[in-house]
């Protein structure tokens, strides 16, 4: 028997990178998937390319290749009705919801007092409010199932330590730790566990942002906040992160809730 046989997972930001890899990994363990992504740029000049609808279709192909079912929805985590429609369609199709991976986010680099308000509010609205909206859309369906469940909030090392050059990102990711701990208490009586993960640098388009490179070369002292002690590895892989997500999604972590799981090459230890 696989770890997630017959369970259903709702994953935001699933068109590529970490979100896609989580979808495929959870499907390999028996889960059916509801995959949600905007599949378009959320901001001009963000410093890295956006995924397309074809990327989300590729996620669907990979999930089906694992022998599981998937439904996809193109939408924005700033749009509560789009999230609710995706959850409702998934529950209608699969009959249940057990797991949420709130993964969609953006990374916009600038010094905080030079950041146009639109960059700050876009970051907070997607990375923090978008996770609240995702949980708000999905949690009632998990409660209604009466079987408990697992919510995984994707934060970052920058939900634990400073992120010079990306204060909006750090503020949102710190906020997620507060949401996670509080949600763990409010959902405990329903047997729903809520944990956040805090990856370090992960090998995806987001971590190759040209705006990050510009800021770090302009202000070299900021690099002090982006060093890690683990020699030989210069990034986490998407598989490293998916293993953590799988652990938290499955009953292997049945005693774990309200936690902040760090997978960061030791970055937060410095
Ligand atoms: N890459 C890293 O170094 C790193 C490190 C720590 C944490 N993280 C976090 O991991 C998660 C995944 O990031 P990634 O590295 O795979 O980046 P990515 O840019 O490849 O993937 C993010 C996905 O989220 C989607 N998305 C963005 N805004 C959206 C919106 N408004 N509505 C719906 N979907 C939206 C994007 O289209 C994209 O498919 C994010 O929460 C990110 O903050 C990344």
In short:
By secondary structure, the chain is α/β, with parallel strands linked by helices. 41% of the residues lie in helices and 14% in strands. It has one domain (8-269): 3-Layer(aba) Sandwich (Rossmann fold).
Report what the structure shows.
This protein is an alpha/beta fold. It has one domain (8-269): Rossmann fold. Helices cover 41% and strands 14% of the residues. It contains 7 helices and 7 strands. The protein has a 7-stranded parallel beta sheet, sandwiched between helices. β5 (149-154), α5 and β6 form a beta-alpha-beta unit. α1 runs parallel beside α2 and α3 runs parallel beside α4. The longest helix has 29 residues, at 117-145. The radius of gyration is 18 Å and the shape is globular. The termini are far apart. The model has no long low-confidence stretch (mean pLDDT 97). The structure holds nicotinamide-adenine-dinucleotide (NAD). Residues 12-13, 15-19, 37-38, 42, 50-51, 76-78, 103-106, 126, 130, 154, 156, 199, 201-202, 204-207 line the site of nicotinamide-adenine-dinucleotide. It holds the Pfam family adh_short_C2.
Q: Could you report the average pLDDT, rounded to the nearest whole number?
A: 97
* Largest sheet data: 7 strands, parallel
As residue ranges, the low-confidence spans are none
Strand content: 5-15%
Run of helices and strands:
EHEHEHEHEHEHHE
What's the helix and strand layout?
Layout lengths: L7 E5 L4 H12 L3 E6 L15 H13 L4 E5 L5 H15 L4 E4 L14 H29 L3 E6 L12 H22 L3 E8 L10 H9 L19 H12 L10 E4 L7
């Amino acid at each position: 028997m696989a770890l997630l046989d017959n369970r259903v997972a709702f994953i935001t930001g699933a068109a590529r990178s970490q979100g896609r890899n989580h979808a495929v990994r959870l499907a390999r363990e028996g889960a059916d998937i509801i995959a949600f992504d905007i599949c378009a740029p959320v901001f001009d000049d963000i410093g890295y390319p956006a995924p397309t609808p074809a990327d989300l279709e590729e996620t669907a192909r990979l999930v089906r290749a694992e022998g599981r079912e998937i439904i996809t929805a193109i939408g924005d985590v700033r749009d509560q009705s789009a999230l609710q429609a995706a959850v409702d369609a998934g529950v209608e199709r699969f009959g249940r919801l057990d797991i949420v991976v709130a993964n969609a986010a953006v990374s916009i680099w600038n010094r905080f007092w030079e950041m146009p308000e639109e960059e700050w509010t876009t970051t907070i609205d997607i990375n923090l409010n978008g996770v609240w909206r995702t949980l708000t859309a999905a949690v009632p369906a998990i409660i209604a199932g009466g079987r408990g469940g697992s919510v995984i909030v994707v934060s970052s090392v920058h939900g634990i330590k400073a992120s010079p050059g990306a204060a909006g990102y750090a503020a949102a990711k710190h906020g997620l730790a507060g949401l996670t701990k509080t949600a763990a208490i409010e959902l405990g009586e329903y047997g729903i566990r809520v944990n956040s993960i805090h990856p370090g640098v992960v090998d995806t388009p987001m971590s190759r942002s040209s705006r990050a490179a510009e800021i770090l070369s302009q202000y070299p002292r900021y690099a002090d906040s982006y060093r890690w002690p683990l020699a030989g590895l210069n990034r986490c892989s998407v598989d490293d992160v998916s293993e953590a997500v799988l652990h938290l999604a499955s009953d292997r972590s049945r005693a774990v809730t309200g936690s902040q799981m760090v997978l960061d090459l030791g970055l937060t230890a410095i």
